[in-house]
Amino acid sequence: xxxxxxxxxxxxxxxxxxxxxxxxxxxxxxxxxxxxxxxxxxxxxxxxxxxxxxxxxxxxxxxxxxxxxxxxxxxxxxxxxxxxxxxxxxxxxxxxxxxxxxxxxxxxxxxxxxxxxxxxxxxxxxxxxxxxxxxxxxxxxxxxxxxxxxxxxxxxxxxxxxxxxxxxxxxxxxxxxxxxxxxxxxxxxxxxxxxxxxxxxxxxxxxxxxxxxxxxxxxxxxxx
Amino acid sequence: xxxxxxxxxxxxxxxxxxxxxxxxxxxxxxxxxxxxxxxxxxxxxxxxxxxxxxxxxxxxxxxxxxxxxxxxxxxxxxxxxxxxxxxxxxxxxxxxxxxxxxxxxxxxxxxxxxxxxxxxxxxxxxxxxxxxxxxxxxxxxxxxxxxxxxxxxxxxxxxxxxxxxxxxxxxxxxxxxxxxxxxxxxxxxxxxxxxxxxxxxxxxxxxxxxxxxxxxxxxxxxxxxxxxx
Lengths: 224, 229
Ligand SMILES: Nc1nc2c(ncn2[C@@H]2O[C@H](COP(=O)(O)OP(=O)(O)OP(=O)(O)O)[C@@H](O)[C@H]2O)c(=O)[nH]1
Ligand SMILES: [Mg+2]
What we know:
The complex is a heterodimer of chains A (224) and B (229). Chain A has a single domain, classed as Urease accessory protein UreF. In chain A, 70% of the residues lie in helices and 0% in strands. Chain A has helices at residues 4-10, 25-30, 37-63, 68-77, 82-102, 106-114, 121-131, 136-159, 163-172, 174-194, 205-215. In chain A, helix 3 packs antiparallel against helix 8 (136-159). The longest helix of chain A is centred in the N-terminal third of the chain and has 27 residues, at 37-63. Chain B has one domain (26-226): Rossmann fold. In chain B, 35% of the residues lie in helices and 17% in strands. Chain B has helices at 41-52, 69-76, 94-100, 103-116, 155-158, 161-165, 177-180, 184-195, 212-226; strands at 29-34, 58-64, 85-89, 121-125, 142-148, 168-172, 200-202. Chain B has a 7-stranded parallel beta sheet, with helices on both faces. In chain B, strand 2, helix 2 and strand 3 (85-89) form a beta-alpha-beta unit. The longest helix of chain B has 15 residues, at 212-226. The radius of gyration of chain B is 17 Å and the shape is globular. Residues 1-14 of chain B have low confidence and may be disordered. The interface between A and B is medium-sized, with 31 and 28 residues. Guanosine-5'-triphosphate (GTP) is lined by residues 35, 37-43, 70, 128, 172-173, 175-176, 204-206 of chain B. Chain A: It is found in: Cytoplasm. Chain A: GO terms for molecular function: nickel cation binding. Chain A: Its main location: cytoplasm.
C-alpha cells in the first residue's frame, strides 16, 4: 500500500468533476445562511456531521469490500432529495471514469457495468481507494474532507471570501474531521456483520431542501 | 490521436481520448470552439450546424458559465433537434471544464452518442473565457479559437495559447471592422507571425459566404479522422 496514493485521490485537482459543485454552498449563500467565514464554518460543521459522516461511512464500507449495490441502495435511502441523488450519481460516474483511468481494476470495471449512469459518489470513492491500494480509513478521510472542502472553495468564488479565511475554516475543522472518520470506520466495520443498517443516517433537512430549490434556478454558478 | 490498448474497453466511458467506443466502433470526431466572451462561438456553431447537418450526423455540447443561454439559443434557432444539444454546467470556471477536469464534458459527449446513435461530429463550445483557455486533447481532437475584430485588433499580436496553438483561428465579425477601426491586414500579419503555418479564417456571419471556410476546414478534419489520421 502506498500512502502517497491518498494524496492523489484527495487532491482537489483530481479530475473527477467536483469543481462544478458547491456542496450546497450556493443555495446557502443565496438564502443568507453563509455570509462570511464564521457562518461558513457553521455550515461546514453541519455538513461534516450529517452528509459528511454518512459519506465517510459509505466510502469506508466500500473500501472494506462490502457489496456496492447494497451500499448504493443505502445511500439512496439516506438521500431524500432527488436533486442530490442526481448530483451524487453524476459525481460518482465522473469519479468512476477518472479512477478507472488512474487505477485500472476489475472491481471498478464491474461497478461501471453495474451502474453505467453512475453510483453514489462515496461508494465509488471507496472502491477507488481500494483500487489505489488504500484502506477504509483513507477512504473515509477523503469523503469527510471533501464534504467540507467543496463548500469552502465554492464560497471563495461565490462571496469573494478571503481564501486564507476559508482555508482556516478547514484547518480548524480538522480535529472534528478526525472524530467523524473514526466513527465512520467503526460503523463500516459493523456493516460486515450487521448489514448496511449499521451505517449512520444523519441528515440535514436544509441541505436537502436547499438542493431542491437550487436545482430549479434558471441561473446558477454551480451544478449543485 | 492514439489508440491505447492498455485500457479496458468493457463498460462505458473507460478512457477519454480513445478513438474507439466501448462497442468497438469508431467514435465521433470532437471539435472544440473556444474564445473570449461574445466573439461569436455560438453563432459559428449554429452556422456550422446549418451548413453540415444534411451531410453529417452531428451534435453539440455547450458550456455555459451560469446560464443555459447558448443551448437555449441553439434550440430556439432549431439548428438541430433538441436531443442533439446538451448543456454542461461549469461551476464558475469554464476553462477547468474543458482543460483541467474534462469529466462532465466527456460524459455529455458519451451520453449524446448513446442517445442519438453513431455520430460523425460533436462540436463542444466552451464558455466565453480569456486568451489562455484551450481544450484538453483528452476531450477534443481539434480546436477552433474564435476572436472578433471588435475585441481589439491587437489580440493576434498579444498571442496566448488560444491564438497561437489552436488548430484553426477564426477572426469573426469582419463586417464590423470599419466601425470599430480594426485593421484587418494588421490582424492577418500578426496572426501569421504567431501561428506560422497554422490556418486563419476571417469571416462575417452577417454576409456571404458566412461560415463556408470554417465548414470546409471541418470537412477536411473529418476526412482525415475517417482515414484514421
Ligand atoms: N456583426 C456581427 N455580429 C456577429 C457576428 N457573429 C456573431 N455576431 C453577434 O455577436 C453576438 C455574440 O455572439 P455569440 O455567438 O453569442 O458569441 P459567443 O462567443 O458564443 O458568446 P459567449 O458564449 O457568451 O462567450 C451576438 O449578438 C451575435 O449575433 C458577425 O459575424 N458579425
Ligand atoms: Mg456562446
